[in-house]
Structure prediction request, 199 residues.
Amino acid sequence: MAGSKPKYRHLSRTSSHRQALLRNLVTSLMIHESISTTYPKAKEAQRLAEKLITLGKRNTQAARNRAQGVFFTPQELLPKLFGPIRERYLNRPGGYTRVLRIEPLKPDQAPSAILELVDGPKDMRFAMTARTLARERRNDDDREKRGEEARGLNDLTLKNVRKVTRFRKDGEDALEGLVRRFESMGVGKDREEKGVNGR
Prediction:
């Protein structure tokens, strides 16, 4: 119907080219668990990836046949989709992927984004939350040394901690381990030194 809102982004491609592009993006996402692309492509690939993971959770022969038609290398990726990825998202009701906007990567300044699998080894929000926790603990320790009162965590950080640990297996232990790693690397020191030297 003329004038209605389109149901999906056409991405300036023919139907077959668009399907091949999305299949290629989803295949790369399942292999690497995190990919960088333009924002519209990431949003469209996210839809297909969510459907594939839902098929993986069903774990029927019909679901395997449908997933096999999407991947470019099904012999490598079907065992991963119906194995570790299925186990990871078995208790999660939805929201298996995340799109994070980043600065433009291409010279034409097209809006770029990272498409990643949630609760995976390359989960960016998990790493950013751990880094924030390490920095806040360091700041609180410095305040106590100066005799000031520690502020603790703000509401946004607490919300992010709940989000990244809610469905992850051993989420709190994994987060604490990553926080300790960041603390041993000295996260927050470089920012303080720049502040002192810049004045």
Strands lie at 34-38, 97-102, 112-117. The two ends are 63 Å apart (CA to CA). The first helix runs from residue 15 to 32. The mean pLDDT is 89.
